[in-house]
Design a protein that fits this description.
Layout: H1 2-18, H2 23-26, H3 30-40, H4 45-58, H5 62-67, H6 70-77, H7 84-100, H8 108-112, H9 119-130, H10 139-149, H11 158-171, H12 177-190, H13 210-213, E1 230-241, E2 244-249, E3 260-261, E4 264-266, H14 271-280, E5 285-297, E6 301-312, E7 322-326, H15 327-332, H16 341-348
Length: about 350
């Protein structure tokens, strides 16, 4: 704990001179902090910037988020993945509209109770937007603390995370709580990096870091390896009729719940079986073209996909569950998960 007390001043001094200029830092209102933190979960900073700016432009307040049509909300989130994140944001926004007049309460425990907000996000909003001295411990912070303290405890365990939150709580400066949390996150993001050599020569904590002192930086942090992902094989169909392409809507529960998708089949079909399936829908294929194979990784599943483009005659009636949309509709209205991006990119150029 003495080591952690010693990191506060050098870390804040370093942050004052090295903090990245990020759009959500320019005006750290509770809503902007909230949106940015949810977007940044499992998404790179550079990728988030244009999404953040577009989202805030179209939905500039909690009230706007609460009242947004679901289809538009999904479209604004398209490409960020993990769509339950934005669904939970809207649930929380509706709760805030009903109980707090559309404002985020300046109370950590109340923020923590909102749908989709865990201890990290609550700590980030409380400290950055309201100056409340509560920790915001994410993967970057866990890595920094593990190395600074030369801790070999498994950071995937909730008990270890809670312990480190308690350690930060004990040293977080009341007058600069938000800056301190951000300085730890920033250090882990750009200096004490994962998956390679940390930039110890640039680190303001190198003289205090026990892992660096004993030359064991690359051994830390310790974490349980993830479970092996299950592989699922699928066949994706790009069904084209004149200037339209076929879409389906996924079930309301389960993987990619409620989103729009290209028609796809369990298993990997050859062209003969695909044509048989298409005819079975009551459609008349004109020609078929195999597309490159693709892969998409979810947290616990890998999709290994084969694809086919099938040109069809304009149908008299759309098959049940299918609907055909024009390019402009697809781009403006329908949120199609990144899992299908290898094939949506193809049919965008086929109109």
């Amino acid at each position: 704990m003495e080591t952690l007390k010693e990191i506060v001043n050098p870390l804040l001094k370093w942050y004052d001179g090295h903090a990245r200029v990020l759009p959500w830092r320019e005006e750290p209102t509770p809503y902007r902090v909230w949106v940015s933190e949810i977007m940044l979960q499992q998404t790179r900073v550079e990728a988030v910037k244009p999404y953040f700016e577009r989202f805030l432009r179209e939905l500039p307040s909690i009230r706007d988020l609460a009242n947004a049509p679901e289809a538009r909300l999904m479209k604004l989130w398209e490409g960020l993945g993990y769509y339950n994140r934005v669904r939970n944001m809207q649930k929380a926004a509706k709760e805030l509209l009903k109980e707090h007049g559309g404002e985020m309460p300046s109370d950590y425990d109340r923020i923590r109770e909102l749908p989709g907000i865990g201890s990290y996000t609550a700590g980030a909003i409380a400290s950055i937007a309201f100056g409340i001295p509560r920790p915001a411990v994410d993967g970057n912070v866990l890595r920094v603390l593990s190395r600074v303290q030369k801790s070999y405890e498994d950071i995937m365990k909730q008990s270890v995370r809670r312990k480190m939150e308690e350690q930060i709580q004990a040293v977080i400066p009341k007058e600069r709580a938000g800056d301190f949390n951000q300085s730890l996150i920033e250090l882990g993001a750009i200096v004490c990096v994962p998956n390679g050599e940390p930039k110890c020569g640039e680190c303001p904590l190198k003289e205090l870091c026990k892992a660096h002192g004993d030359n064991v930086e690359l051994e830390l942090p310790k974490k349980t390896p993830p479970k092996k992902r299950r592989i699922e094989r699928r066949t994706v169909l790009v069904l084209l009729s004149d200037n339209k392409a076929a879409l389906k809507k996924r079930p309301p529960k389960g993987l990619l719940a409620g989103l729009y998708e290209l028609p796809n089949l369990d298993g990997q079909y050859d062209s003969e079986k695909v044509l048989e399936y298409v005819k079975g829908l009551g459609l008349s294929p004109i020609r078929i073209q195999p597309l490159p194979e693709a892969k998409h990784i979810f947290s616990h599943i890998e999709w290994h996909m084969a694809g086919f483009a099938v040109k069809i005659e304009e149908p008299d009636q759309e098959p049940e569950g299918f609907f055909f949309v024009e390019k402009a509709q697809m781009e403006e209205t329908y949120s199609i998960p990144a899992a299908f991006s290898a094939y949506t990119e193809y049919f965008k150029h086929c109109f």
